Each structure stands twice: as C-alpha cells, then as structure tokens.
C-alpha cells in the first residue's frame, strides 16, 4: 500500500470536480425545471386574458367626457 503514496502526491490538491453526484443533481434539477415550465405553459394556455368591460368604469369615463365637453 505504501507504493501508492507517491501517486497520491501527484494529484493536484487545488483541482475540485463535482463528479458523478454533481452531474446527477444537476440533471435532476434540469428535469424539474423542464417539468415546471411545461406545467406553467399548460396552465397559462387555460387563462382567459380578455376582460369584460367594467360597467362602472365605462360610466365614469362617459361622465368625464361629458364634463370635458362642457368646459
């Protein structure tokens, strides 16, 4: 076992790599983000962006227009 000690000294101690575990964690996070984006897209397609006109706002606008015409 002592003949492996010189090989261990040759390894750069400042070099740090994430390894297989880091890749697996990154891949799982990427799949989770993809799934969330797909779900959000599906929910956004169900949203109706067209609003019905507000009767009170329409009446207030007409009153403001008539008041502006009188001046």
Notes on the structure:
This protein has one domain (17-68). It contains 3 helices and no strands. The protein has helices spanning 5-10, 19-46, 55-70. The protein is rod-shaped. The model has no long low-confidence stretch (mean pLDDT 82). Residues 45-64 have a biased composition (Basic and acidic residues). The chain crosses the membrane at residues 20-37. Keywords: Membrane, Transmembrane, Transmembrane helix. Residues 45-71 are annotated as: Disordered.
Distance between termini? 101 Å
Q: How would you sum up the global shape?
A: rod-shaped
Mind telling me the C-alpha Rg? Answer: 33 Å
Give the count of helical stretches.
3
Largest pleated sheet: none
Write the SSE topology.
Elements: H1 5-10, H2 19-46, H3 55-70
Summarize the structure.
The chain is an all-alpha fold and 71 residues long.
Main features:
single chain; 71 residues; mainly alpha; membrane; transmembrane helix; transmembrane
């Amino acid at each position: 076992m002592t003949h492996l000690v010189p090989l261990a000294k040759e390894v750069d101690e400042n070099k740090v790599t994430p390894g297989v575990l880091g890749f697996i964690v990154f891949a799982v996070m990427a799949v989770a983000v993809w799934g969330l984006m797909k779900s959000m897209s599906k929910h956004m397609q169900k949203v109706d962006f067209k609003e019905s006109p507000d009767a009170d706002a329409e009446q207030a606008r007409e009153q403001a227009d008539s008041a502006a015409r009188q001046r």
